[in-house]
Every structure is written in C-alpha cells, then in structure tokens.
C-alpha cells in the first residue's frame, strides 16, 4: 500500500491533468489510456456540472436473472468481505445499474449519499468516469483512483471493479465493484475484486447445474452444460421457440409456430422432439413441451437489454441476423419485432463507437449510418464519407 504522501502526490498530479482542456499523448500515458478515453467521453456527455449522485431508479423484475439468483447464494460471503475490509461492495448489471450492494459501517453513509446502492445508475454518460462502467466498457478489471472520477462527490473514493463472466457462455453478465476511501488505496484491490467476481461465478456454476445456452445471431449454436451440442437447424429453431415461450407449448401450437402452413406431418415434429429429449437427457418436458434446464440465450439477453434501455449492450449482442435462414412464422415475426426495436434504439443512440461497431457487423445497417450522419458535424470529413456510404447502399 502506498504511503499517505505518495497518495497525496498522485492526487495532485491527477488534478493538474484535470485542469488541461485537452488530453495529450503524454497525459494519456500518465493517466492510462482507459482513464484518458473515459475522461474524453465524459466531457462530451453533457453531464450536469452539479451532479453529485447517480440517478436512482426503482427496479422492476419480471424474472430474476441468473446473476441475481447467484448473488442470493453468495451474498453473505460478499457482505462479510465488505464489512471486514471497510468497503462497499456493489454488483452492477450489463448497463451499469447496481442490482445489489453491501457496505461496512464506515462506507454506508457515503454510499447512500452518492446513490452507490441498489437502483443507482452508474453509466458513464450519466455520472462520468467510474470503475464499474469502465470495467464493462473495457471488459477488463479497472481501478479508478480519487479524482480520476468525474464526479467531485466521489473524489475521496478509490474503486476496483472486475467483470462477472458466465462460466458456460463466457459472456459478461455484469460487474462487481469494491470501493473505499482514497487513503486506503491498495495495489491488491483489483485482485480482491477479481476474487469476488470468481465467488459469484462459482455460485453461477453451482446454480446452473443443467444449463442450456442458445446463440441465434450469426452462426446458430447450442451449448448444454458448457459443451457444444450438434443439432439440426430445425432442432435449434424448436429450442429457440421454447426459450421464447417458457410456459410451454402443446404439440399443435408448436407445429404451427414452427411450420405454419407448410405441409409437414405431426409425426415429423414428434420424431424431432424425441431426438431432442435423448440429446438433452430428459431436460425437455412434455404436455406441454417445455425446457426444464436453466435457459440463457443471446436473443433473450438482447431483449432484456432493450427493455432496460441499454442500447449499446443490445447492439453488442446482436452480432448477426437472428436465425437468418428460418422459415418459422413465429420466429420470423419475433425477428421483425426485434429489428424494429433495435432500429428505434439506434436512432436514440449517442455513442458513435457503438454505432460504428454495429455497422462493422451489419454493413447494410442504413439506420446506423443515418444516425451517425446526424451525430457527425456537417463539415467533418467523416460526414461526407458517411453520406457517400449511404448513397452507395
């Protein structure tokens, strides 16, 4: 741990950099590239100068996420860590909204004042540079020290964050953050955050004893308990329909959803269901047909992200067309609805980096091009390039 004098000197150096109107390469090197980039994004986000606390929302749960259920299993351990280390521990979802927190007596009041509690929205465009949002942005462990934070109300904090990764799908489910006062800064803080992330990941592993993960964007794929299952396109369509209808479907309704008016016999669908039951080891229920394993899917995560207003997260998940070759009327209708919602979200987006990455995956995404044109100054060279791109497509 650095001594008090060294920490004071570090704060002083950061404050000098904060006073500069622009960040040079030398300054970026002193700060670290991720902090310097975050400062630039924060400065352009039009965050109110007098903002001293994160926006607070009441959280509505239609169904508990795997992350929330895992925290129920390991919350006591995390709370003990917070109390023993004089810290506040918070878990955020993929949109940087805190879904669970615990604090020591020393940090509780400070956390409540700045809304570093359940329901606090710690997105970078709302509160500026902070470890929780930075870790999600970079998908790496992050430390934000003292006045590296954008909001002056947390300049007395040091925060360590690490992403929480699904042990099966390997996708980021959220982030955990450990925060204390700046004078207790310790180089082992990041390791502690990573250790807490591993505690949650172990709880996820224990909870998801029978776990089915469906990828439906770009190249469709199904993982059962972490292993790729070889399935036909039709079988993947069936699992996707059942994932979208967790209450289950009878044979006739499933046949209609899958084949529509195509002349395919009920017996063909029965044979498909029998093969799936053998592959999934009894995790396929009948009367009605339903999935008995814990189900996660990239399209369900994208839908949840859109429901929560996390446009950037939704676009990152949609890395290809949803089941591009399907002829299922049910799935085609669902895809049309999703694409309509995505387009609406794109026209409300402000993050040009996210839109450019989306365009890289979808060169035909004219809605993203049009939004980028709106966000780019008319005299800027990129504006002319985007206009030309639009005309060519």
UniProtKB/TrEMBL annotation:
GO terms for molecular function: DNA binding. It comes from the Bacteria. One of its GO terms (biological process) is regulation of DNA-templated transcription. Coiled coil: none annotated. This is Transcriptional regulator. It comes from Acinetobacter silvestris. The lineage of its organism: Bacteria, Pseudomonadati, Pseudomonadota, Gammaproteobacteria, Moraxellales.
């Amino acid at each position: 741990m650095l001594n008090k004098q060294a920490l004071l000197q570090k704060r002083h150096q950061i404050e000098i950099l904060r006073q500069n109107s622009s960040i040079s390469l030398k300054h970026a090197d002193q700060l670290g590239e991720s902090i310097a980039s975050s400062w630039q994004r924060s400065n352009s986000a039009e965050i109110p100068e007098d903002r001293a606390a994160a926006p607070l929302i009441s959280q509505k749960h239609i169904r508990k996420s795997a992350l929330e259920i895992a925290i129920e299993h390991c919350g006591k351990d995390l709370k003990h860590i917070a109390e023993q280390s004089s810290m506040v521990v918070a878990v955020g979802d993929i949109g940087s909204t805190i879904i669970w927190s615990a604090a020591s007596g020393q940090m509780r009041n400070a956390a409540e004042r700045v809304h570093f509690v359940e329901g606090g929205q710690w997105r970078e465009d709302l509160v500026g540079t902070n470890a929780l949002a930075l870790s999600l942005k970079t998908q790496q462990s992050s430390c934000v020290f003292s006045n590296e934070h954008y909001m002056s109300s947390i300049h007395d904090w040091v925060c360590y964050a690490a992403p929480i990764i699904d042990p099966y799908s390997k996708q980021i489910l959220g982030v955990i953050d450990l925060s204390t006062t700046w004078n207790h800064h310790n180089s082992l803080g990041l390791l502690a955050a990573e250790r807490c992330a591993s505690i949650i990941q172990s709880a996820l592993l224990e909870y998801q004893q029978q776990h089915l993960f469906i990828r439906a964007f770009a190249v469709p794929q199904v993982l059962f308990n972490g292993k790729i299952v070889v399935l036909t396109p039709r079988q993947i369509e069936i699992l996707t329909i059942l994932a979208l209808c967790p209450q289950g479907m009878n044979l006739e309704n499933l046949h209609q959803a899958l084949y529509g008016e195509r002349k395919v016999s009920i017996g063909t669908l029965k044979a498909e269901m029998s093969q799936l039951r053998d592959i999934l080891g009894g995790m396929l229920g009948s009367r009605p047909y339903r999935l008995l394993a814990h189900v996660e899917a990239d399209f369900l995560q994208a839908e949840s992200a859109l429901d929560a207003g996390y446009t950037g997260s939704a676009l990152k998940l949609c890395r290809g067309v949803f089941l591009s070759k399907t002829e299922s009327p049910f799935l085609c209708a669902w895809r049309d609805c999703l694409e309509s919602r995505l387009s609406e979200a794109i026209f409300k987006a402000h993050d040009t980096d996210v839109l450019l990455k989306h365009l890289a995956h979808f060169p035909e995404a004219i809605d993203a091009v049009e939004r980028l044109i709106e966000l780019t100054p008319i005299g800027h060279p990129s504006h002319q390039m985007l206009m030309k791109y639009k005309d060519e497509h």
